[in-house]
What we know:
Ankyrin_rpt-contain_sf
Amino acid sequence: LNAEGGRYGNALQAAAYQGKESVVYLLLKRGAEVNAKGGYYGNALQAAASRGNESVVQLLLERGAEVNAKGGRFGNALKAAKAFNRESIVQLLLTHGADPNLRSRQHDT
């Protein structure tokens, strides 16, 4: 269920990226780690945020996704959403406590 590998890091991240809300829900219900790290996007929240999958972002946040988790290509979910001009996702993340001043080693802006 939490096996790692491939571009997306794990099944949850792949489903989140593709906007498959029902699959994300099922994986979480079956015990997938909501904050599992790995892959290009770093975690499922960042993958969903980058694609503008608002319902998936909401579900992940409701299930305990760390809104300020660092990692992946963009550094965090807020930066991923900003990179693709996903304004509704940016607002959703900010509402859930995303830090607009958060810095990471790889992404210092």
